């Protein structure tokens, strides 16, 4: 007999968002330290993602062999059906790593909110979800904040590194939206049923062969073995930690999307970068001009408006559903009397 799925509660949704926020912040800061130009500046970025995926697979298999976790046995047909999710996942990680290497964290923070524009449109087209005036207004505020932040950051003298960073940031917005939307379909709307540990296993396992293409194209597959950091113990420990955090982020992402929505997931992803911004300034000594700080705050206000607007829409939908149930019950009662 199949076990009924646990009922999603408000507290469960809130906890899932908090866990995802923590894991996302930790992953961004760790990657920033690994590939950032002011820090380790590890140049073979596709290898970083490959190493994180390999570490994730090894850890999941080790935990499964010890009986700590359980998930489905490897099946080639399942891997093929899960491949589109992983493809978008790899694109999101790769473009995000390149954007993080070329742009300050506060710029990445603001542009993460722009992803919501794409996701809102995608949820409307694919899942029929509509949004209210507050959400639409917040999206406009977030977009304006992103434009003003980037303009103040460039200051009329864009460098090659900056332009490349913005290109990869835009590509990251597109790939993140595609990943979130397809992941929602795969986890809730398709016949493909996997446990969250199974999703994390397939995500990392299928990602490994997909990463060989960018490694071959950039030459990372050859140059990585000549990089002196490959014998640097603190760096290797940090790289291992990033693989562990990657698994945690996978699990937190799947959980958050499954108990909330793709748009809520993306909103949390944008808002939770607020502490990351200040950590980047205070701990990692990122530069933040006063006018840029104002525009970053402007974008964050848009994100908060968005969260409140989504809450209003959700409450309105619940009330409409309740009224419909009452009307249906009344209609059934009248029919029985007739």
From TrEMBL:
Broad class of where this protein is predominantly found: membrane
Domain EamA: 164-304
Coiled-coil zones: none
Location(s), subcellular: Membrane
Entry membrane topology: Multi-pass membrane protein
Protein's name according to its UniProt entry: GDP-mannose transporter
Listed transmembrane segments: 12-34, 84-111, 131-151, 163-182, 202-223, 235-255, 292-309
Pfam families: EamA
Species per Swiss-Prot/TrEMBL record: Achlya hypogyna (Oomycete)
Keywords noted in UniProt: Membrane, Transmembrane, Transmembrane helix
PANTHER family recorded: SOLUTE CARRIER FAMILY 35 (PTHR11132)
CC per GO annotation: membrane
């Amino acid at each position: 007999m199949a076990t009924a799925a646990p009922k999603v509660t408000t507290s469960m949704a809130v906890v899932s968002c908090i866990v995802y926020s923590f894991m996302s912040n930790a992953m961004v800061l760790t990657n920033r330290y690994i590939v950032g130009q002011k820090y380790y500046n590890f140049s073979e970025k596709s290898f970083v993602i490959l190493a994180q995926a390999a570490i994730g697979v090894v850890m999941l298999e080790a935990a499964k062999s010890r009986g700590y976790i359980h998930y489905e046995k490897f099946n080639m047909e399942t891997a093929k059906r899960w491949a589109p999710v992983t493809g978008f996942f790899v694109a999101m990680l790769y473009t995000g790593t390149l954007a993080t290497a070329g742009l300050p964290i506060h710029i990445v923070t603001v542009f993460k909110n722009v992803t919501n524009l794409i996701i809102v449109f995608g949820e409307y087209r694919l899942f029929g979800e509509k949004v209210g005036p507050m959400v639409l207004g917040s999206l406009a505020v977030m977009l304006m904040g992103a434009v003003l932040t980037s303009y103040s950051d460039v200051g009329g003298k864009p460098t090659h590194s900056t332009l490349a960073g913005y290109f990869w940031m835009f590509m990251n917005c597109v790939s993140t939206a595609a990943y979130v939307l397809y992941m929602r379909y795969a986890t809730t709307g398709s016949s493909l049923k996997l446990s969250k540990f199974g999703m994390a296993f397939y995500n990392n396992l299928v990602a490994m062969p997909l990463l060989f293409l960018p490694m071959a194209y950039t030459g990372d597959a050859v140059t990585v073995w000549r990089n002196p950091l490959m014998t640097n113990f603190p760096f290797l420990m940090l790289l291992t930690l990033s693989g562990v955090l990657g698994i945690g982020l996978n699990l937190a992402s799947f959980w958050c999307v499954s108990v909330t929505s793709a748009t809520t997931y993306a909103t949390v992803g944008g808002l939770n970068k607020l502490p990351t911004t200040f950590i980047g300034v205070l701990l990692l000594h990122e530069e933040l001009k006063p006018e840029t700080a104002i525009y970053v705050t402007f974008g964050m206000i848009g994100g908060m408006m968005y969260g409140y607007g989504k809450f209003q829409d959700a409450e309105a939908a619940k009330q409409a559903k309740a009224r419909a149930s009452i009307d249906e019950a009344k209609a059934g009662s009248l029919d029985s009397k007739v």
